[in-house]
Design a protein that fits this description.
alpha/beta, TIM Barrel, 12-stranded mixed β-sheet, 17% strand, binds S-adenosylmethionine, binds iron/sulfur cluster
Amino acid sequence: MFIDPFGRAITYLRISVTDRCNLRCVYCMPKEGIHWQPRVDQLSVDEIVRVAGAAVRGGVKRIRLTGGEPLVHPHILEIVRRIASIPNIEEVTLTTNAMLLERLAQPLANAGLKRINISLDTLDPEKYRRITRGGKIDRVWSGIAAAERAHLAPLKLNTVIVRGLNADELPALARLTLEHDWHVRFIELMPIGNTQEWGEGFPTPDERYVSVQGMRAALSAFNLQPASQPQGSGPARTFRIPGALGTVGFISPLGEHFCESCNRLRLTSDGKLRSCLVVPNEVSLRGALRTGQPLEEYLHQAVSNKPARHDLQVAVSAGSQRGMSQIGG
Ligand code: SAM
Ligand code: SF4
């Protein structure tokens, strides 16, 4: 069992299977993309599965695949199938932009995927194209429909709220839960790898941030009632519009610390274990993987590196941040 120095059991691993992505969301990546890690530095399918196996033997119960965009990985179905069949794993889930989901939802479910989180920041097709720098919102909707047909439920929608961009859509996005059993989670913008200008027509860095308190104020007319957390909600605070089928959640990495209940480790696509999203303290597994050494000691080291809590402002101003797509947000 992995227990960190502050008594927290580590039961959740997020694996970034690739740093590549088929979109360039303004808050996540620069227009020209990032400098992709060389293929040889990226973990192979066998290596990813070995780390997952060692983590599950140490007490990890849930694994989320992310990226970059996990569905651009050419062997994503094999990764899901092999991780889902690790003895004692409770669930494998995935976070995606849904561009490739329509075709992959049923094969993913067949491979053992249990649930899916889909990122959608706006209901406006033109705004979606601008935020993602070229994405087509129709593909998100057809991906959502395919995920529902494949019973990848309950479906979660992740929405990063940015003032001057989509904050005006908070009520419309929350209203989706009236008729759909979806969990819409509003996420504070994190100043990770994105403090530069996003280009013409986008808000400046100091105008963009909206706190969860600000988001809840924008939804006050809905009379949100506290609701029980859907499974795997991690740090979200969850509410329901009275009578709604789904819930709305708020994720606040900046405003309200959720460090006390942090149960996670992250594996980057180049084989580094990160103990915290924002503390750039990494344990490299690649050497051990490629020389056939046991991984347990490295996993324990990453667990023992977990800080009591992070200070996002300090971490960000200290620099040396990798972007979200590299860490596996
Ligand atoms: N490509 C997949 C997707 O977009 O769902 C998975 C990887 S993406 C890095 C995971 C999540 O991180 C997405 O929901 C995205 O909106 C969120 N994200 C990326 N950059 C962020 C930022 N600067 N602040 C808050 N959330 C961010
Ligand atoms: Fe790609 Fe996801 Fe980052 Fe958007 S948020 S650029 S879809 S990794």
